[in-house]
Amino acid sequence: MPSGCVSSQVSRTNSLQGPSLVRPRAPASCNNNLMGILRSRSRPDLLSPQSTARRPVFPAGAEISPQTRWARPQSRWIPFHYRETLTTAKIRRADESSALDYAAHQLQPDDIGRVRDLLTRGDTDGLLVMHHGKVVYEYLVDGVPAWQTHGLNSASKVFTGCVAAILADQGKLSWNKPLHDYAPQLNGTGYEGVMMQAALDMQSGIVLDPMAEFKALGQHPDQGSEPAIGVAGLTLSVKQGTGKAAYAPVCTDTDAVGMACEQVTGKSMPELISELIWVPIGAKEDADMTLDHFRTPIYNGGMCATLQDLGRFTNMLLNKGKVGNKQVVPAAYVEDSTVSTSCLREAMNGNFYNMPWPGAAFHNTFFLDPDRKATYNYGAFGNLLYVDHDASACCVLLSAWEKPNEQIQEWMSALQELVKSL
First CA to last CA across the chain, in angstroms? Predict the structure, then answer.
């Protein structure tokens, strides 16, 4: 990495109109008074009748560190509590939320097939299913209030992609120009010459250790004395790619797009998501975006939002980017994001997080189903935004699995069966 890359990026970020920072409200050990308050909040009216899991409780005396955050019980508790464990920026909600309509007939346990069995495992935090714009099923783990945000991990990429699409529609970005045209700090890095579209499709050709992001954020279990260089430091340090048009889940591809969005607007990504997406969809609650220790947004994995607001977002995508009569995300982008091509399929080569998925593709931050007009945005440990245009349905799955991808194929198959049956 060229000398001074991290400090120059920090200076650039700080020169923008800063996001509303929400610093961790408890030390790593999490004081018991705060935890007692959090345990006491609940909304019994939102509980699913077949709910058996209870809201995760943080054990007294435990601490959160790079060595413990990925292990139980911490990893079961953290997804609902990024505000208490990390620095976050607020994504402001709408002054007036849009209605979330509920169907007269709500699905019962016997109606949801294999999904019911998966829910009994006890590591699913929330599930929302909508059909023709109305909620037909809602599950939130017992004791969790509707306003509680939950981390999405890599499913967050879709928000950076949608922001870029809106800015492109406004003439501020172009898919067919290199990223360094918009973010000059990318000159001289592996992203010099990489096109915006290639980054959105994760075809930059960049080769990156899958653990590099965790080390850059200071969250790797074996961090040791290795410095945490942050999101910008990692993105600016990558080497020139292979030049081969192949899909690879490289986190810095999305980070480079996020940097370009901020540069052309002079606004932070949390501000952009609020202004361009969260307020227009009528979000009821503030969302959060996690920041690294340089206060740079984690563009590819930092989004935290409520189950119901994510339902509003996925239903907007299902409705060709519209909420009512208001176009939020360009309809052409939403439609293009459902179109698989032979080139996209060849680039992904049937490899989904080292699991077989023949014929699938990745485009504009969406995974594309090989057999249906359906898209998926997936984040590790069981966080999924699923939009099935063929079935006029969308689903939001929030989870805290013990292993990153252990149940994803089962859940995707079960949810597809469910929406086909509606």
Answer: 52
